Amino acid sequence: MTFNINDIKPKTLATAIFLALMFTTEAQAAEMTRDEYKELQLKLIEVETDCWKGKKGSLEKYKELRKKIYSGYSDFPRDFNEFPSFTKCPPGKKRVMYPKKEQRYAHSGGDYSALSYASIAFFYLPLTRVDPPQTGYGTNITRGESFVGLTDRSVTGFSLGGEVTAKGGKWSLGFGYTDVDGSSEAQVAPGGDVLGIVFNDFADSGSTGLNLGASGMDVRTETDYQAFSGKITWTPGTVGTIKVWKGKINFGAGVRVENTEHTAEVTTPTFSDIRSDSVQKINENALFLNVGSTFHVLPNLNPSPTGDGIFFVTLTPGVEVGLRDAKLESSQRNICGLCGPADQDFTINIEDKDSGFYVGANIEAKAEVKVSENTRLGVRASAWWRNQSARIINPETGDDLFVRNQPTHLGTDDISGFTFGLTATYTWF
User: Fold this and answer.
1) Which of 326, 343, 348, 335 minimizes the C-alpha distance to 395?
2) For site-directed labelling of 298, which of 123, 145, 194, 246 has its Cα 20 to 30 A away?
3) CA gyration radius for the chain?
4) Are 349 and 204 in contact, with CB atoms under 8 Å apart?
5) Are 226 and 241 in contact (CB under 8 A)?
């Protein structure tokens, strides 16, 4: 039997050709692997960049390539399969579809740093205040044997530092430096209360201090506080949404080094050759863990799908627990021209140590504005508190030495601080 193509009816031939083409297209679509899909996605990014640069023919290539991707890979999430047709380049810079859950959240949540490869931020906080534990000098015997002068409770200065992030903010490394100082003065006029100077420990002669009578007293103190800190933070993903706030939990671990120095001069206007000068230094180191959550406040300020907005407002509260270790170096020089030879000029040196666990809380707020594709400028404020920090406890009365046998030593008290200033962030995509 001889087959002749002319014997086939045109309608039957057209039907056969249509079915063959349909089955071929479905087979090609089914054959696309995930590796092929990823390769096409990379090409899509390149074409999209060309589109933004205005390269001729790039928009047509973009439409064609995207149609090929989303019609040929059926396992891609359904919510990314429906797209409007574009008559111009797609909105946003380097728009990329992210298959991971946390990346899809960041992609639609208005935080464009989550799309970044890395970023670096610097901050300068000229309004910095620290409230360290106080210590006292000079004794008012008339008023219950209490200190005449205390160190400054609030010392002020500046802070500066920075933060480097990678993998869209998932990992970050931060560092900071604080330098603050303060001073205080206290006076008691002659002819009033009975005053005295209590030594930090027994003198070689066995004396515990000087009774100055009603000769008056001047106490001047200065406090210098410096702190260095470093912390690494991991932000795994989203913890949820509170009304218009989208939150991400973060875990941090860090180290802190604090140096506090108190100097004090205790003199009397009646006797020029009687005085007590103290220099007391604390070195306190801490290892700590921090858990917090960064909330992107009002993300609707950045409505574009790529988070390519203008304003960025974040609020980051956290809690902290750590192990602290403190060392004290104290020196008190006492001069008394009217005293016996053994007590006319001598120095008492004391060293002490203290360690323990502490807990704390902190909060940070940032408001930034995008001034270029990669740069944001803004303001930053923070506040923090810890329930334990090293405190110098000086003898306040002679009984502290005679009865309680408590020379100058370390104790603990709470410490807190506040900062406000400027911040700048540069991001690489």
Assistant:
1) 348
2) 123
3) 35
4) no
5) no
How many residues are given for the chain?
Answer: 429
402 φψ region: left (φ > 0), alpha (ψ -120 to 50), beta (else) = alpha
CB atoms near residue 268 (< 10 Å): 22
Beta bridge partner(s), residue 226: 179, 259
Burial class (CB in 10 A: 0-12, 13-18, 19+), 225: buried
- Threshold 0.85, pTM exceeds: no
CB within 8 Å of 316: residues ≥ 6 apart = 250, 292, 293, 294, 295, 363, 364, 365
Q: What are the CA-CA distances from residue 175 to residues 123, 159, 232, 364, 386 (Å)? A: 10, 11, 9, 15, 19
Q: What domains lie within the chain, and their CATH numbers?
A: 7-89 (no CATH), 112-428 (2.40.128)
Q: Are 388 and 324 in contact (CB under 8 A)?
A: yes
**Residue range 77-129, pLDDT digits in tens:** 433 333 334 444 554 444 444 334 334 333 334 444 444 567 899 999 999 99
